[in-house]
Every structure is written in structure tokens, then in C-alpha cells.
Amino acid sequence: HGLYAGIEFGGSAAFPKDDLGMRGALELAADIVAPVVYRRTFTNSYLELEGGWIGRTTERDWKAYDHGFHVGFALGARALRKRFVFPGAALGISYERVWGDEDLTMFKIGARVSLDLDL
After folding, report:
1. Could you say which of 7, 37, 41, 69 has the lowest number of CB atoms within 10 Å?
2. pTM (2 decimals)?
3. CB under 8 Å to 61, separation ≥6 — which residues?
4. If DSSP states are collapsed to H, E and C, what string results for 15-76?
5. 81: pLDDT confidence band, cut at 50, 70 and 90?
6. Which residue, 51, 44, 42, is CA-closest to 69?
7. Mean pLDDT value across the chain
């Protein structure tokens, strides 16, 4: 097991509400997450718990970032390799809260692909 840090990039889409509470057009977004990750490793599987900063920007203005926090966990598996690259895949669930022009709360479920380097 160990403690890690990294950078995650992701995308999302939403139908935001207007001032009257009506859903608008589809809006694309990009997310950057800088998590601290605790990983408990088993033979070829692992459990991750993570938390950290998130920056979110939308197609309205790609240069403006709203800031918030991200917490989540993932269950994954790695290939058994003897070289320095270990490919893996995981299923992750996260909760994110972003403050900015409009406060936003998100629950995300998704697949992750990883390349662990044993340096």
C-alpha cells in the first residue's frame, strides 16, 4: 500500500438550468483534478481512496476555472508483469463540489485506465 499524488483529466456534459429553472442546451465541460490517493494493493487488485482539488471549465469560457473539491474511491486490477510498466483498469465513484458562477454538485461513476510505472 502507499500514498500517491497525480493529475487527472476528464470531461463531462450537462443541461444547465436557466433562471426560470428550465433546462437549456447541452454544455460541455473539462475537469482537472489534483488528488492525493491512498492505494491498498492486493495480489493483482487494489482499492483506492482519494481526495483533492478540482478545477472545472465549460465551453462558455474555456479560460475561466471554477474551483472545488473531489473525493472518491475505486476498485481496480493490474496485470501481473515483471517489467516497469503495469497496465490496469478500475471502476471509480466520486463526489465533486464546485463553487463559481453557479454552485455545482456532481456524482460520477466511470472506468479508468492506468499505467503504473515502477521506477
Report:
1. 7
2. 0.79
3. none
4. CCECCCCCECCCEEEEEEEEEEEEEEECCCEEEEEEEEEEEEEECCEEEEEEEEEEEEEEEE
5. low
6. 51
7. 89
Neighbours of 9 (CB within 10 A): 8
Does 105 have pLDDT greater than 70? Answer: yes
Residue for grid cell 497496465: 87
What is the spatial distance between Cα 93 and Cα 68, in angstroms, rounded to a whole number? 17
Cα separation, 114 vs 73, whole angstroms: 15
CA end-to-end distance (rounded Å), the chain: 16
Q: What whole-number distance in Å separates Cα of residue 89 and Cα of residue 71?
A: 19
